[in-house]
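ok so i was messing around last nite and threw this chain in just to see what happens. nothing serious, just curious
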Amino acid sequence: MQFGSSYGDVLRSTIGGVPGVTNSTRLGNPALRPELQKEFEVGADLGFFDQKVDLSVVGYNKKSSDVILPITVNAAATGFLSAFQNTAALSNKGIEVSFNARPYTSQNLAWEFGVQFGRNRGKVTDLGGAEIFDLLEGFGANEAEGADVIGYAPGVIIGTGFVHCGSGTQVAVPGMGAAAQDIDALCSATPGGYKRNALFLGPNGLPVADPAIRVIGDPHPKYTMSYTSSLKILNKVTLSGLLDVKKGGTQYNGTRGALYVFGTHKDTDARGGTGQYGVSWDTKEYPDVAGPGTGVVGLNTPRDWENWLSIVGTGGGFTGPGEQFMEDAGWVKLRELSLSFNVDRPFLKNLTGFSSADIRISGRNLKTWTQYRGLDPEVNNAGAEYLTQGLDWFANPQSRSFVLSFSLNR
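result:
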């Protein structure tokens, strides 16, 4: 019989081949109070030029208190692992703007277009005395998982990273003995100086893992936008389109990390040559390096690459820090294009008894422009309903579809 699962309480036990269920590991709490929300909202709806142009603007400031979270309890004393409590508080501030225009309208031609803009800034302000609340929406603390962290937006991504200059870190450095080293002092000795937050390289030319769990990514965008437009010709033919934009936000590319370990990612073709951080390996993720390993070629032979990228090293996705697989997940998507025809000729009514017919051809998710190196920056292994987004572990990309539809009208 198995107890405890980060994936919920499910049918998972058998006794003598007879299926059964285990008791929940979460303690009930009859003293729970409703979550409280206070929101201040102000907005305006404006119309111009005889309603050919309209503008809607809404700003809001919402604060939530007594937020219910499952808090860890003393298992030895209670027999349970967690209990729901009113313990958290958070805030959300944002603005939403909608602009629509109809610059030309006549009997034979009508053109409309619109722009929508949205921005939200969330912040966790209280976790009942804790600094981090692990949401268990990920793959393990070493790699990447979701969490609420004081001072950050709800559902950021936590994990481990490499040591960086300017962080005040003191850790043991391979090749420099077992004692902890002052990383900032070693960075300061870099010929030509260093940039703050530069990747620290040990004497062997390789990064040094930092065991401290910290925020390594924020999946929330700086803003989102959408652009719509439609053109109607002769009141019969309509061409319309939708373009979606997400600016900013990071995503954990766990697929790339796993394929590094398997040696099947395109990047691992580099193992036939040499790898120098900041020059020929991970130059996109780490453009600035510093420390005694600056200029040192750390990956010289296939064995070096194997040791670094495989499950025994820290350059792959299973045992390596999750920070190295965080990527910019901003995108622009041609979400939809459609072309529709309206037929209302007399022969249609004589033939079918219907007064008109609409024929529509459309395509969805036709093109994506992004710097994300995975298949699709819009996926999430935990699903759209989970607080933390931006976790990609062999997730299926968004489907591209083409639809032909017919509608008959009386």
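not much to say yet. Residues 1-11 have pLDDT under 50 and may be disordered.
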